[in-house]
Amino acid sequence: MIATLMAYEWKRTRVMVGTVTGGAVLGVVGATLLVAPGWPGLSIFGVVLGAVVLSAYAPVLQVLLAVDYWRSSYGRTGYFTQTLPISGGKIFAAKFLHMTLVVLAGMVVTVLLIPLLWWGLAAGGIVDIGLVAAVRELWATTTAVLSPLMLLGAAAALLGLVLAGQAMFTFSASIGSEAPINRLGLGGPVVVYLVLYGLCQVLVFAAFFAFPVGIGMTGGTLGFVRFDFLAEVTASVSTPDDAMPLAFIPPMMLLGVVCYWRTVRSWNRKVALV
Question: Which chain regions cross the lipid bilayer (predicted)?
C-alpha cells in the first residue's frame, strides 16, 4: 500500500520536480558557458550563478514539495486524500518517504552537475587541476584527518538534519491546517513554521551551553574538542584552529522526531481541511 501511495505521489509531483530539475540543469549550463570563455566580468557572474544554483536546488525542491504536501493534503485535492480507506499515519508516511527520496535524488543530481561547472572553471582558467585529481586530493585530505567512523557519523548527521527540516515543514503544514488556525489558509502553516523556527533557535542556543562540544584539530586529526560558545562570540580575533560546534545537532534531531510524531497524530485524529 505504501508503494502504491508513493507511486501516486510521484505521478502528481513529477512535472514540478522535472521543471525544477530542468531549471537547475539550464542554470548550471548557463553558468558554465559564462565561465568557460574566461572573460573577467562574465566569469565572476557565472561562478556566482553556478554556486547559487547548485546550493539552492535541493532546498528549493524541498520547499516546493512541502507546499505541494499542504495543497494535496489540506487543499481542494485534500478531500480525496483524506477520504482514502487508509490510516492517516500510512498516508503521511508515504508522503514523507516520497519527499525524502526526491530530495535525496536532488542532492545526487547536484553532485552530478558539479563536473559540468568544473569543466567551465577549468576551461576559463579559474582552476588549474582536473576534477578527478581534485576529488582524489580532497579525499586524501579528508581521510587523513577523519576516521571512517567520523565520516559515517557526518553522513548520518547530514541525513538527519535533512529529515528534521522536512519534518518541520510537514509539521507546520499539518498543525497549521488544524482548527481554528486553518481559517488563515496558507497563513496557518506559515505562522506555525515561524513559531517553530523561533523555538528551534532557542533550543539550539541553549544547547550551546548544555553541550559545549565541537569538532576541531587534536593531535593532528579531527576529533571532539570543547567548544566554548561565550568565548567564541566574544573573541576579537578568530584563531585558525577554531572548532565547529555540534550542539545544534541534538536539539534539531529531537525536534524533528517530535514534529514527525505530532504530524502522524494530526493525520490520525485532528484532520481539518481548508
Answer: 15-36, 42-67, 96-118, 138-163, 243-261
Q: What is the pLDDT of residues 79-114, one digit of tens each?
A: 666 666 678 888 899 999 999 999 999 999 999 999
What is the reported pTM? 0.83
Cell, residue 169: 515543514
pLDDT at 13 over 50: yes
Closest CA to 215 of 241, 186, 237, 194: 241
pLDDT number for residue 80: 66
How many CA atoms are closer than 13 Å to the CA of 144, on its beta-carbon side?
7
Contacts of residue 92, Cβ cutoff 8 Å, sequence gap at least 6: 170, 174, 263, 264, 267
